[in-house]
């Protein structure tokens, strides 16, 4: 059972938090869902959406995290997980196991996903490329 002294009830409505451009990637916008504050940093939940057309993508990286899922709510994104290209479309859920090397390299203009990660202050570590990455689709 959770320790009720370190977690709180949270209810965030769409108008309660703004989309922000100061997240991990400048080509995405982020909207905090209040979970990091409610869990004292154990978990973060935020919405992420496309802000600019894909040019270089995220680069090869891994996260220092115990848990991470991506639930695509709108549009699509293409990831490389190791040497495996993976199309993630609206309605799909991906569990990114701890330490998996990946690269988000392409996405639709309407892409939006829910990301849940524990802990909230997870780190992103650049990694060497295990393979070539396909060219992203142009928005023009």
List keywords for this structure.
single chain, 140 residues, mainly beta, Jelly Rolls, five-stranded antiparallel beta sheet, 10 strands, RmlC_Cupin_sf, Cupin_2, RmlC-like_jellyroll, Cupin domain
Structure description:
- The mean pLDDT is 94.
- Strand 5 and strand 6 form a beta hairpin.
- The protein has one domain (18-126): Jelly Rolls, CATH 2.60.120.
- By secondary structure, it is mainly β.
- The protein has one helix at 35-38, and strands spanning 28-32, 44-50, 61-64, 67-74, 76-81, 84-89, 93-95, 102-107, 112-118, 123-126.
- The strands form 3 sheets. Strands 1-2-9-4-7 form a 5-stranded antiparallel sheet. It has a 3-stranded antiparallel sheet with strand order 6-5-8, with no helix packed on it.
- 22% of the residues are buried.
- It has 1 helix and 10 strands; from the N terminus they run E-H-E-E-E-E-E-E-E-E-E.
Number of strands: 10
H/E topology pattern: EHEEEEEEEEE
Distance between the termini: 51 Å
Q: What spatial form do the alpha-carbon principal axes imply?
A: globular
What would CATH call the class? Answer: Mainly Beta
CATH topology: Jelly Rolls
Main sheet record: 5 strands, antiparallel
β-strand percent reads 35-45%
Q: Give the CATH H-level superfamily.
A: Jelly Rolls
Output the radius of gyration.
15 Å
**CATH architecture descriptor text:** Sandwich
- Compute the number of helices: 1
How many individual domains?
Answer: 1
* Uncertain segments: none
What would the average pLDDT be, to the nearest integer? 94
Helix content: under 10%
Structural class: mainly beta
């Amino acid at each position: 059972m959770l320790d009720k002294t370190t977690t709180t009830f949270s209810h965030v409505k769409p108008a309660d938090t703004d989309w922000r451009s100061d997240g991990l990637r400048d080509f995405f916008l982020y909207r905090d869902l209040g979970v990091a504050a409610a869990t004292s940093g154990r978990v973060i939940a935020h919405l992420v959406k496309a802000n600019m057309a894909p040019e270089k993508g995220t680069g090869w990286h891994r996260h220092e995290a115990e848990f991470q899922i991506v639930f695509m709510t709108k549009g699509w994104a293409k990831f490389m997980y190791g040497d495996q290209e993976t199309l993630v479309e609206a309605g799909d859920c991906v569990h990114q196991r701890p330490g998996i090397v990946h690269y988000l390299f392409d996405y639709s203009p309407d892409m939006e996903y829910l990301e849940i990660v524990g802990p909230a202050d997870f780190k992103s570590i650049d990694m060497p490329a295990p393979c070539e990455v396909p060219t992203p689709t142009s928005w023009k």
